[in-house]
Structures are given as C-alpha cells and as structure tokens.
Amino acid sequence: MDFLQNFSYWTIYTLKWIMTILFAALYYFIQRLVLIKTVKANFVKKWLNFMYLFLLILSALALGIGWVFGNLEKGYTFSRIFMGILQSPLPIMFLLPVAYANSKLSEENKTN
Predict the structure, then answer these.
(1) Cα–Cα distance for residue pair 29/21, rounded to 1 Å
(2) d(CA 87, CA 55)
C-alpha cells in the first residue's frame, strides 16, 4: 500500500468515489443477469432498477445536504451507507425470495 503515499488526499478521495460507482454498477449488472437467468417475472427486474435508482438518489442527497449544511462528514457517512448497500448482494437477497413467493402464489391462484 506504499504506492498510495504518492497520491494526494483528494486524488485518493476522488478515486474512491469512482471505484464506488464502478463497483455498484458491476453489482447491478451481475444481479440483473442473475435475475434474468432465474426469474420469469419482469416486475422483479423493475424493482432492482428502482432500488438502485432510489439508493443512488438518496446517496447523492445525503452528500449534497451534508455539503449545503457544512457537515460534509455526516453527509458522506450516510452516502457511503447507501452506496454500500448497492455494492452488496442485499438487493438480490431481497428480490429472489420475493420472486419465489410471487411464483408460488401465482401457481396457487391458477390451481384455484
């Protein structure tokens, strides 16, 4: 990690945000691919889109509000929490059981 000492604080800070966005995008595409391959219901893919968009907006708002009110550290903390969710398997861990339950309910409704 000694090579990081060659960079300024702001360079590392900027690179951290770029990497955060890149990894969130990578997780989005992987989760979308898994949903396309495993789930027939289109609403689940729409919910994944909605979750990512919503959490990205919340992240930007948290950072912006922190900047506007002069408390960038708090805004950054909340922003990182929201971005952390996007860089994790949490969205798909929520959506796969929802899709499974929906398919079971649909099958049950067809038999009745």
Answers:
(1) 12
(2) 11
Compute the distance between CA of residue 28 and CA of residue 107 in angstroms, rounded to an integer.
29
- For 84, residues 6+ apart whose C-beta sits below 8 A from its C-beta are none
Our CA dihedral for 61, 66, 70, 71, rounded to 10 degrees, sits at: 180
pTM (2 d.p.): 0.82
In tens, the pLDDT along 43-65 reads 999 999 999 999 999 999 999 99
Domain boundaries along the sequence of the chain: 7-111
Q: In Å, what is the CA distance from 23 to each residue of 49, 86, 111? A: 16, 8, 43
Both tokens of 29, joined, read 């595409």
Mean pLDDT computed over 20-28: 94
CA distance 112 to 107: 9
Residue whose tokens read 């966005």 = 21
- Under DSSP, the state recorded for 87 is T
